[in-house]
Amino acid sequence: MYQQNLAPIPELYVSYESAQKLKVEAANLTSWDLTSRQICDLELLLNGGFNPLKGFLNEEDYNGVVDNMRLADGTLWPMPITLDVPESFAEGLELGQDIALRDQEGVILATMTVTDRWTPNKSHEAEKVFGADDDAHPAVNYLHNTAGKIYLGGPVTGIQQPVHYDFRGSRDTPNELRAYFRKLGWRRVVAFQTRNPLHRAHQELTFRAAKEAEANLLIHPVVGMTKPGDVDHFTRVRCYEAVLDKYPGSTTTMSLLNLAMRMAGPREAVWHGLIRKNHGCTHFIVGRDHAGPGKNSAGEDFYGPYDAQDLFRTHQDEMGIEMVDFKHMVFVQERAQYEAMDEIEDKDNVTILNISGTELRRRLQEGLEIPDWFSFPEVVKELRRTRPPRSQQGFTVFFTGFSGSGKSTIANALMVKLMEMGGRPVTLLDGDIVRKNLSSELGFSKEHRDLNIRRIGYVASEITKNGGIAICAPIAPYAATRRAVREEIEENGAFVEVHVATTLEECERRDRKGLYKLAREGKIKEFTGISDPYDVPEHPELRVETENVDVDNCAHQVILKLEQMGLIAG
Ligand code: PPS
């Protein structure tokens, strides 16, 4: 058992008076607008969550952390906390120069003295820190495709905390939590890290862990950045608040941690432990596949299921925080209670119930029952509010095809059919209509077409997010742009690509607007199919042929597809 020390830990803020002065001076400095991830990192640097770091890592510390999880002075630190910037920003700086660090609204949060500037070997960082240079890992993907090319290092001086407007009462700095534990006399505190909603099994395992460690319990969820696709933190926090009532009074508390996770498995577990130690905890629960990133591009797990526990155990004496291993809790039907899987002796004679994460998502998506033994009714209600069944979610139908292929006509028929069904608002973003309003200044160069499709995609994704149906009907000739729009929309709901596959010959034969004739005569330039390219969709959700098929039937094929995808109730 490690001795708990609840004395305040060093923060990197200057006093209130100095901050006011520094803020005025910093306004004249070159400034860097922090990315969302950097804001999370800065918050924990400034409030001592990343103690003993005093700023973004310099090159020597970075090399030590990447290669052997240690700062240059030998202190254990598993995660590179770096300020990545583009070359264009780094070029103009001189070493020793102070820069202002601003949030996304332009508020100056801190200054930093740039002592180091270097070009990291990102593949090496990926291999060493994340175990593989594979973009299927979210942090490796971030490293290669989002992070800037250059790293800046140096100490930071805090002016003010990053501003949060949500759940302000539940966000605590390490020193606030330490003071809370001091006040309540909590000498042993076990922390539970989570990025998922809590169900009954979690409540059982955390309570059991606390009992075993004879400790109080801190539910310490991450609300900064988690794995793409996770339940948003607003919903999760409402769920956690409901679960908090299920613990015996004054045994348990919850605090929100604005951490940007990296999903680095074993290294992440050690990092999480150090952060919890800084927050005054004595014990930390490490689960199977802790902070696991999912499968690599070969379809295999990035880390072994117990790698995180093994690495944590190796370092726990040095860290001064004790690991409590996560028990796999399952529901035993005959005894109507949760039990640790490895402690059930009569496994062959009892019925063991469990619902996987995938199965839970399926049940939510299809509006199916989620039994009481699995979760708390309050939690299920919150999840259902956020993730209604697919037949109540927004979606986008995206028609693509040549000019005159019949996109607009089918889109109009589809709109009317959906409006007849009712239930969700329907918006038609037809090519011609968009070009009269949203994109009136654009022509038909590749750049302008892309901009046009991006705008349509943005509006459709907002409609989808807000539970409506967007029907888009532009030519959208470029596959890469269609894919980008798909990705944007799929964050909020389904994207149904419909290729209206009328051949160019047929479109030209129909020539309903007389445009093909003009294009052939060279009077309209860059005309799709004649003097401009069209990438035929390879895997649309649906391909409709229009030759010898009437419009009503084409629209009906789309309706059947939507039914099949669960987007409209049959
Ligand atoms: S794009 O490529 O998706 O941005 O095009 P879109 O916004 O759908 O606009 C296509 C309509 O504009 C008319 N038009 C042209 N189409 C293709 N190429 C050229 N150069 C061109 N110039 C004008 C044409 O009427 C298209 O309408 P639809 O409804 O597709 O027939």
From TrEMBL:
CDD domains recorded? APSK (cd02027), ATPS (cd00517)
InterPro entries, sorted? APS, APS_kinase_dom, ATP-Sase_PUA-like_dom, P-loop_NTPase, PUA-like_sf, Rossmann-like_a/b/a_fold, Sulf_AdTrans/APS_kinase, Sulfurylase_cat_dom
- Where the record annotates domain ATP-sulfurylase PUA-like, the positions are 10-160
Per its UniProt record, what Pfam families does this chain match?
A: APS_kinase, ATP-sulfurylase, PUA_2
Q: Which residues form the APS kinase domain?
A: 393-544
Q: Which residues are involved in binding ATP?
A: G401, F402, S403, G404, S405, G406, K407, S408
Q: Name one GO molecular function term.
A: adenylylsulfate kinase activity
UniProt GO cellular component terms: cytoplasm
Its pathway is: Sulfur metabolism; hydrogen sulfide biosynthesis; sulfite from sulfate: step 2/3
Enzyme Commission number(s) from the entry: 2.7.1.25
Query: What SUPFAM superfamilies does the record tag this protein with?
Result: Nucleotidylyl transferase (SSF52374), P-loop containing nucleoside triphosphate hydrolases (SSF52540), PUA domain-like (SSF88697)
Keywords of the record, alphabetical order, are:
ATP-binding, Kinase, Nucleotide-binding, Nucleotidyltransferase, Phosphoprotein, Transferase
Q: Which reactions appear under catalytic activity for this entry?
A: adenosine 5'-phosphosulfate + ATP = 3'-phosphoadenylyl sulfate + ADP + H(+); sulfate + ATP + H(+) = adenosine 5'-phosphosulfate + diphosphate
Specify the signal sequence span. none
Residues in Sulphate adenylyltransferase catalytic domain copies: 171-385
Q: Which GO terms describe its biological process?
A: hydrogen sulfide biosynthetic process; sulfate assimilation via adenylyl sulfate reduction; sulfate assimilation, phosphoadenylyl sulfate reduction by phosphoadenylyl-sulfate reductase (thioredoxin)
- PANTHER family in the record, alphabetically? SULFATE ADENYLYLTRANSFERASE (PTHR42700:SF1)
Checking HAMAP family in the record gives: Adenylyl_sulf_kinase (MF_00065)
Q: Which family does it belong to?
A: Belongs to the APS kinase family.
**NCBIfam families the UniProt entry points to:** apsK, PRK03846.1, PRK05537.1, sopT
What role does this protein play? Answer: Catalyzes the synthesis of activated sulfate.
Q: What is this protein called?
A: Adenylyl-sulfate kinase
* Lineage of the organism: Bacteria, Pseudomonadati, Pseudomonadota, Alphaproteobacteria, Rhodobacterales
Q: Which gene encodes it?
A: cysC
